Amino acid sequence: MSDVIISGGGLVGLAFAAALDSAGLSCIVVDPADPEARLTGAFDGRTSALSSSSKRMFDTLGISAHFPEPGNPIAKIQVADGLAPGGLVFDSEGEGEPLGWMHENRHLRIALLERAKAGKNIDLRFGRKSAETVRDEQGVRMTLDNGDTIAAPLMVAAEGRNSPTRDAAGIRVARWKYDHAAIVSTLVHEQPHGDIAYEIFYPAGPFALLPMTDGADGRHRSAIVWSVSSADAPGLLKLDDEGFAAEAEAAMGGFLGKIEMIAPRSSYPLGFHHTVRMTDTRLAMIGDAAHGIHPIAGQGVNLGYRDAAALAEVLVDGARLGLDLGDAALLDRYEKWRSLDTLMVAMATDSLTRLYGIPGKPASAVRRFGMALIDRIGPVKQRLMDEARGTSGDLPLLLRGLPI
To answer: What keywords were assigned to this record (predicted)?
Structure first.
């Protein structure tokens, strides 16, 4: 008997397991994948931005201590409407911490897995999946595909966008697809990036350039997340590295000098989904199981870490009061804490996607005027910086850098 069964051992599921472990609550992590298979081999080009609040959580839980190498700080974010002059700059100088940190996904997985293996209260069941799960008034009972039976008062789904637990529970999901595909990779460039992230908006989609640590050869690296129309994505993927680098350099305006691709390119369709609720009988959902947004603001995985921190705090408070961890009142507290924040961020990113997708010079002029106005209004600009950092709203203790 464990305190929590976590279905899903990805980036968010393992962070949640570490949060429970740090407070003395036990959990069993069930995931059909073999995590070791995703830790070997060359860098595949996939990266993630940790907001500064997520980094505080990682530091507090001891996850950061397992990073193979430190991430690259994001000191500034420069936003532009195409290559037109003007724009908006978010600068963390004098703020005490960067706006975020860039990490290779494989390094995030290594750190999270090593922290999970070190956890005294974490039982890892990788390579296993549920053959049958029962959730009722008595608790949660799961029979694994190897015949093992596990039980807990609560199940947490951290299974990603296609969560089978969410679907089996009959939880409705609002969803739609954008006519965009995201192409992700990593490149090297002549000029140093200066720890600056660039977001260049085009009608077909944003081009994000994110600062990475220099390579072992000393060359300057940046990750790209390039949202293009679904019709154009196959053609860009078919280009050889030199051809794709030329297209990317043109989209960047060449301000970092000559570039060269150093990692494979991958692509995925972009969409929006948001569940009508984040809980069910003895069930809570975190991360992409509950919500998925456009990568326009780089907040996707960070929303999941906010879910994990909030749910862990609710459960630890409940345990200290001697409550059943699957109690509906506890789950209702989590639902109220997280549902509004996730919805607001989701709708904000959707609105930005649609706003910057309007073609034409008049629309571009209006966007540039709006950015210039925000740049002059201190409180509005600070609020947007807080959103980028993940430090707005009612923050869980872990996101403030405090133990639960």
So the answer is: FAD, Flavoprotein, Monooxygenase, Oxidoreductase, Ubiquinone
User: How far apart, in whole angstroms, are the C-alpha atoms of residue 314 and residue 388?
Assistant: 24
What are the distances in angstroms from CA 345 to CA 50, 237, 294, 378?
A: 16, 30, 10, 21
Q: Cα angle at 11 between 8 and 12, to 5 degrees?
A: 70
Characterise 156 by phi-psi region: left (phi > 0), alpha (psi -120 to 50), beta (else): beta
User: Which residue stretches of 277-396 are H helix?
Assistant: 300-320, 328-356, 361-376, 378-389
Domain residue limits at 361: 4-175+271-394
- What SS3 class is residue 399? helix
User: Binning pLDDT at 50, 70 and 90, where does residue 380 land?
Assistant: very low
Domain annotation covers residue 161: yes
Asked if residue 8 has pLDDT above 50, the reply is yes
What CATH number is given to the structural domain containing 320? 3.50.50.60
Segment (H or E) for 155: strand 154-157
State how beta strands 27-31 and 4-7 pair.
parallel
The reply to whether 189 falls in a domain is: no
> How many other CB atoms are found less than 10 A from the CB of residue 352?
16
215, part of any domain: no
Alpha-carbon dihedral angle through residues 25, 34, 135, 144, given to the nearest 10 degrees: -110
Is 229 a domain residue?
no
Helix (H) or strand (E) holding 105: helix 105-118
pTM of the model: 0.89
Residue ranges with strand state E in 33-126: 47-51, 72-74, 76-81, 88-91, 100-104, 122-126
d(CA 144, CA 326): 21
**Among residues of the chain, what percentage have pLDDT more than 70?**
83
